[in-house]
Amino acid sequence: MNAQNFPQYNPVWTSFSKNAGESMPLGGGDIGLNVWVEDGELLFYISRSGTFDEHNTLLKLGRVRVKLAPNPFEDDDKFSQELKLEEGFIQIQGGKDDLATSIKLWVEVHQPIVHVEVESKKELVIETAYESWRHKNRPVKGAANNANSYKWAPQGEVITYQDSVNFEDGGVLFYHQNRSQTVFDVAVTQQKMDAVKDQMMNPIGNLIFGGKLVGENMNAAGTDFGVYQDTDFKSWKLKSKRPSKKHRFQIYLHTLQTPEQREWQAGLDSLIQAQPKNSKKAETKTLTWWKDFWERSYILTDTQRQASNDTVWHIGRNYQLFRYMLGCNAYGNYPTKFNGGLFTVDPVYTNPDMPFTPDHRNWGGGTMTAQNQRLVYFPMLRSGDIDIMKAQFDFYLRMLKNAELRSEVYWGHGGASFTEQIENFGLPNPAEYSWKRPEDYDSGMQYNAWLEYQWDTVLEFCLMMLEKEKYTGESVEVYVPFIESCLRFFDEHYQYLAKQRGARTFDGNGDLVLFPGSANETYKMAYNANSTISALKTILERLLELHYLKVNQRAHWEGMLDRIPPLSFREIDGHRMLSPAKLWERVNNTEVPQLYPVYPWGIYGLGRPDLQTAINTYEYDPDALKFRSHVGWKQDNIFAARLGLTEEAAKLALRKMGNSGRRFPAFWGPGFDWVPDHNWGGSGMIGMQEMLLQTDDKKIHLFPAWPKDWDVQFKLHAPYQTTIEAVLENGELKELKVLPKEREKDVVNMLGWSMEEKLERGK
């Protein structure tokens, strides 16, 4: 990366924050901190991937408050707080003359350890407090249940149970221990899966998570009570034994699924005991990891700030900031959640009508919504962060058995039945499944106007798995059984449904009848939804490209590919366009699945036949026009880029990736979800990537939808282990580096091309 340009993207604040809503993200490995200085005191929240309680709320691991005496942060005259992106740490400075003080906060990438290091010209006393709002049981009422898996339909009283917090050996030990009975058990019984319960994966029963705050040369200094924003808390304080110019403390975190607390404790103790001899190596390894992360990929826009306004510069800066946030959960056991990731704070700063605890986020903790999650992970292909995608892939692999048991129990056929809103144990969310159901309603179905018959969203994660091989050259044979099971569900389930309706299994052409279906959550009771057809066709074709399929596997999937019906089209005002489906009953949401053959499935696009039909769909489809937006998970910016609509893509990119309006400019949202809205940032990243670089098998389209007058430097990844680096200045391509070099012949520079030239290429 061009080192002289990158530091300008570091957020630097020169005044205190008013509250947690003005915090700065910091993280590494699978840990996220929200860091801010308020009224002269340093505070930060601690989050970690996979810390789900009995109700599947993603609990924070507490808040830490640091006070110094004498206080170098008495005022913010000399104050600065900077996120140093290249090195992956936050540095806070303040104090005049001999009171000049620096605080460094950093998180190890390869071990779950948080470090805080204080250095001052003058000897100071430090008081570090661990603060917990879970010092008592807390009943969860009303809309506060949106943070857990019960949502609007709690079954009896829901309680967030208190944590165990105590002084231990000069530190503060804290942990949450789940009971054996959880929402998993409730959902299994609700959804009539008790007969196979002993075969099912249960990730939250007896889960223990927490850690220990350990200060060097610190003693326990008592407890206290207080209130932050809307929530009371109890604090456990550590205080330095004597004034010093240097102070350090660490927070060690550990998670284990076990009914025995002592087993969890032994794992935590082992981590603490190993740390002193590893700390210098750990810092070096962490710095190296972040350096490699930034050298792997980047998009730097208008680095000289030559544009008439700075919004072009902002989108490049915000792209980098959001990618940093994704890097903070590089190695989590669970994927980065679309609804806030690891960086949520007190909910009143998202919605003032929600005076709940800092554990709150709408749309649940252990609930994953596939159409949102995909937008968080797709941009990692082009950014070369494919190692980070493992958490999302593993999430689905763990649930495979449970999803296959659904098909077996409900319908007596094979394949994995994955739903759109799915719990981390592979069953539909119990509220979305619905407690108020007709007695004779299919037990395998969600009784839900939005989610009924929406099975196909898992296929986008199958595509990501297949893309891994194309991008890295590494075998994805380990994912083949999963992909086959997802395909098998569609083949067998829609034959099953056809046989329930009548004597014929296929239509008059011998094709599957994909009815009832769903084109996203929008076109319901769909007959042959184009989004589903595109997904099945693409995944089957890509699966059949794998050289290690056995002869019988290949024959089976070729047979299924022959049974996939063709896409549907319609004509409006003389314009031929892609249809959402052959037929549908009603419109229920505001997605645009008629353009899914463009993205993510790539059947239509630059260099592909009949591009005009797809452009007509974008420009004239009445629903596509009515639903158009840059907010949240909306992907109109991606569609426009894929279609080569440069002016439109640029306009939407500026809206999508412009400053969030919050102190940290990449804390977008809430959109349709929560703050920071990660599917907002993810869809923005994809759009910018597609404006700069598109691929059609081995063809590489350079600047297919990038304005000629937007200066940019970028490094992105393409299939066949290819990287492309380019510098565009003053409308000219100044530098182009393609590795491996033999791939240069595949590059088509579309900078400044007219729409007519782009259309001609697809003929």
Number of helices: 17
- Main β-sheet description: 15 strands, antiparallel
The fraction of residues assigned to DSSP E strands is 25-35%
Mind telling me the C-alpha Rg?
Answer: 27 Å
Task: Enumerate the spans where pLDDT stays under 50 for 5 or more consecutive residues.
Answer: none
- Multimeric organization: single chain
Instruction: State the total count of DSSP E strands.
Output: 32
Mean pLDDT metric: 96
Distance between the termini: 38 Å
Query: What class do helices, strands and sheet pairing give?
Result: alpha+beta
Helix content: 25-40%
Overall geometry comes to globular
Which labels suit this protein?
29% helix, 763 residues, alpha+beta, 32 strands, 15-stranded antiparallel sheet, four-stranded antiparallel sheet, single chain
Structure description:
This protein has 763 residues and is an alpha+beta fold. 29% of the residues lie in helices and 26% in strands. It has 17 helices and 32 strands. The strands form seven sheets. The chain has a 15-stranded antiparallel beta sheet that branches. β29 (712-718) and β30 form a beta hairpin. α4 (370-377) crosses α16 (678-692). It is globular and about 85 Å long. The two termini are 38 Å apart. The model has no long low-confidence stretch (mean pLDDT 96).
